[in-house]
Amino acid sequence: MADPQKPATVHVPLGDRSYDILIGEGLLASLGDLVRPVIQHPRVAVVTDENVAPLYLDAAIASLEAAGITADSVILPAGEATKSWDRFGELTNSLLALNIERKDALIALGGGVIGDITGFAAAVLRRGMDFIQVPTSLLAQVDSSVGGKTGINTAYGKNLVGAFHQPKRVIIDLAFLDTLPARELQAGYAEVVKYGLIDDPAFFAWLEENGARLRTGDRAAQAYAIQKSCEAKARIVAEDEFESGKRALLNLGHTFGHALEAECGYDGTLLHGEGVAIGMAMALDLSARLGLAPASDLERYLAHLATVNMRGRASQIDKPLDADTLLAHMAQDKKVDAGEIVFVLGPIGGARTVKGVDLDLVRAVLHDSLAG
Fold it and tell me: Across all residues in the chain, what is the average pLDDT?
């Protein structure tokens, strides 16, 4: 079990784009000192949202200024709907109005939404700026802040516009989890479970024994799970930075989950992690129907979700949904290749990408999940 009082470092080896993930308790107070070595100019703009700003923005600015870094800020609305063209335009215009220069840096202080939209702004503003991830949600700490995927949503689906743009550093303060709403903590847990399902059955077994402790604030369990997740993602990203092969495995459950999110309209009915949790159940169901996994894997996974009070069926979403409409969303998924939906399937700990799946079988999986 990790000791949260001893900060851990996970290295992401990507040549001249390499960076470190720093994990520890109370790192926000040292933000300025942790940022200073990886920025070109002593000037930054902190991008955050209306939920995070009252909690942490003042402390972030104070730490930066104490380290001799001039810091401005931009505050965006909270929620998935912020990852839109309109909000992206507002963000870039706000940053330009601050006279941000190319060698200045952006700091994303928030969850996955803030990290994604800030990273995308950094990728294109002044034709490319440095940025630093300071993820405040469990989901962002274990997944979206690492690996350089940035972007926004469109009416056609999630993350369909974006860029690969690696951060200069990721700073994970475990204390952020103390102010995270319980529902957000649960949603982020889905991305932790994902790493066990992909290729680490021993980690999944550990989560079966200890997962509930993450939700109840056990710091040692949180530190271990976050470090283990970051190590897994760093390893996969290092092997396949631009998702031409193995990195696609990180999309386990996401093709289904993104369709659920899109149909729910990004209105808070379904959080990203909640959609992924249900999507991974659908992936295991489809795997069993194709003979790629035993049916018992789905039951085992659903049983684990129940122990952490998470939903595993689309029927548990408080919104009318239709299998054919969801399938239409899936056809717009960014992982579609030559008109075929690419699925991540397989048994617990043995995921792989699969093309050419009979869509009638996929429709049956959707239908059964919607039926409960």
Answer: 96
Q: How far apart are CA 20 and CA 275, in angstroms?
A: 29
Annotate 191-231 with DSSP letters as a single string: HHHHHHHHH-HHHHHHHHHHHHHHHTT-HHHHHHHHHHHHH
Top CATH class of 182-371 equals: mainly alpha
Catalytic residues: 127, 149, 191, 233, 243, 247, 251, 254, 258, 272
What CATH architecture is 8-179?
3-Layer(aba) Sandwich (3.40)
Tell me the chain's radius of gyration from C-alpha atoms. Answer: 20
Q: How confident is the model at residue 261 (pLDDT cuts 50, 70, 90)?
A: very high
Check residue 157 and give its pLDDT.
87
Q: Over pLDDT 90: what percentage of the chain?
A: 94
Tokens in use for 65? 């200024």
HEC secondary structure over 163-189: EECCCCEEEEEHHHHHHCCHHHHHHHH
Domain ranges of the chain: 8-179, 182-371
pTM of the model: 0.96
Structure tokens at 107: 């700091």
